[in-house]
Amino acid sequence: MTGDKPVTLAEVAAQAGVSIATASKALNGRDQVRASTKDRVLQSARELGFTPNALAKGLLSGRSGTVGLVTHDLEGRFSIPILMGVEDAFGAEKTSVFLTDARGDAIRERYQIEALLGRRVDGIIVVGEQTNNRPSISAGIPVPVVYAYAPSDNPADCSVAFDNVGAGRLSVEHLIACGRSRIAIITGDPTYGAAQERAIGAQRALDEAGLKLVGEPTFGTWTESWGRGATRLLMAQHPEVDAILCGSDLIARGVLDALRERGLEVPGDVAVMGHDNWEVLASGARVPLTSVDMNLEQLGRRAATRLAEAIAGNPHAGVDLIEGRVVTRKSTAPLD
Amino acid sequence: MTGDKPVTLAEVAAQAGVSIATASKALNGRDQVRASTKDRVLQSARELGFTPNALAKGLLSGRSGTVGLVTHDLEGRFSIPILMGVEDAFGAEKTSVFLTDARGDAIRERYQIEALLGRRVDGIIVVGEQTNNRPSISAGIPVPVVYAYAPSDNPADCSVAFDNVGAGRLSVEHLIACGRSRIAIITGDPTYGAAQERAIGAQRALDEAGLKLVGEPTFGTWTESWGRGATRLLMAQHPEVDAILCGSDLIARGVLDALRERGLEVPGDVAVMGHDNWEVLASGARVPLTSVDMNLEQLGRRAATRLAEAIAGNPHAGVDLIEGRVVTRKSTAPLD
DNA sequence: GAAACAACCGAAAAGGTTTTCTTAAACTCT
DNA sequence: AGAGTTTAAGAAAACCTTTTCGGTTGTTTC
Questions:
Q1: What's the pTM?
Q2: Are B270 and B244 in contact (CB under 8 A)?
Q3: How confident is the model at residue B186 (pLDDT cuts 50, 70, 90)?
Q4: How high is the pLDDT of residue B1?
Q5: How many Å apart are B108 CA and C10 C1'?
Q6: Disulfide: which of A159, A279, B202, B207 matches A319 by Cβ 3.0-4.6 Å?
Q7: Is residue A2 scored above 60 in pLDDT?
Q8: For the domain with range A9-52, which CATH number is right: 1.10.1660.10, 1.10.260.40, 3.40.50.300, 1.20.58.100?
Q9: Are the folds of A64-162+296-324 and A164-293 the same?
Q10: With b meaning 16 or more CB within 10 Å and e meaning fewer, what string describes B40-66?
Q11: In percent, how much of chain B has pLDDT > 90?
């Protein structure tokens, strides 16, 4: 099967006994072609297994019907759902997606974008590795660019990001709704905007409810062992805590472990809440873990939609924020 | 930046004061063009920011310089490293990768492959969701197809898969080398070839060493809670066990948990070994977990290489097996 | 019966690049 | 100086599709 050249429109036309022009019209549903002729062409196309050459079409129309997806975190859990959302949204409208992984390297990124432009993509989506701002690359690029997850530092660009402040607020509101009032925060690396912003959102929600955070938010690393260590410290200094808001599900796993070792019940004595809704971790936890889902697939779809709009001539400036959603599991069950 | 049409070769030629043909030759390093002329053309190209139109090139040569990557498990941890390997291998040789996700649906797959063929990809890689055999789709597809992770059921196709039998053997050999002799197996879903084959490989290695497995391999689900439950059962029936070989790192996490609760030391009393080398899980475990890495990135690179060979006219038939590698951590430290 | 009209179809150009073939110019040698 | 040879550059075809516009039927209207 590997040798035969693809069937061309000319061959279809020949078999149907019409001109190339007529065959084209028939296949594209143009009028100006008799029904019987159209059927004959369609029949021939089917028999020969004709697939129109997208290259030729793209060359002619100036639109390739492709987009580039430049990610920086292919191994990470965050870019994958985004990528799924993008693929999903574009797949539906007959646009194909080129995938490249720049691995956090700006030189690589530049090179790959050059390659994508050579392929005449109609637009580009750049997926960052963190939620921190990232430098804009839109200058000098002749097609629309949308930044996903990590927004561009240029407000004139179009970005789609996650609402970390809102997530912090949502989490605290959920804990309060579950009857908790002495809430502490154990989160990850303080250089991550995500960690800072979520803490800020949490603080705001507490303020509005007239509550005070127990201690200060403790920053550390995004690991289980940090979750364990921070919990031991926290419970020693503030045994009154009745809820711990964690910066990630992984941290929350460590927190759960440490609490169990200390003989504390979850959610009876302390409620625990994670972030990311990493399914396998959250529902497999010893006490299934309530967590904030970042709706990353939706984020990807939104980015795709924005790009499609820009390609169609309606660009959008500024940052679109995607809201998280609390996925309730046992670790925050309301007190009786 | 969004309006301007891309620069064409004709414009470069005009600015350099030569014909299109000469410009083309100069840019492609053909001889038959004077050095000074060549310099002039290159200079113009740089000034105008010329990027050759890959669509036109592909249309002419019949080679688009693109390949399609059809995955069935985009959200899964297994396809991502494979995808990275593929992207890596092709990125190096100026081939771009179209990504599509068929999500386990054969209809979707068929449709997406049709779309890829319309884009005149030079080849296709199909990434399966499990290691079980999958139906061949090569018939009627005019470009080479390589099956990654899940091999094709047609031995005439080219597949690249993981050596599960070998992995089972490697694991047991490692445990024996660490001084263990009473080994039990707790693994996942019995409908997964991976689970069965690894058990078989383990059995063989035991046979060769003149040892017997403790009990029968216990199949269940790929979850932590199954790991916990199976461990309780196992230790009740066979307290003599000194090593547990797990079907996945997640199961191993459950096993570790249950052992700790039972007051058993790892690795002092029992060694535990996982599979997948899921970094965050394995090294974050309470006792860092020895695990088998499937070298999936290498698998992806191999698949890409095989596809490149086939495109170049040297197709390869049969299944390439990629070996795993034991990543040693504390959970299997040798006995003193 | 001629003119206007509709319906259907085909010729040709366009899109950007590579390659082959031809031509023009410059050189070498006797 | 003229014939032969090398070198540099250009003209044009080819890749495949879509679209515009002109042409050929056959049909209606006065």
A1: 0.93
A2: yes
A3: very high
A4: 46
A5: 38
A6: A159
A7: no
A8: 1.10.260.40
A9: yes
A10: bbbebbeebebbbbbbbbbbeeeebbb
A11: 87
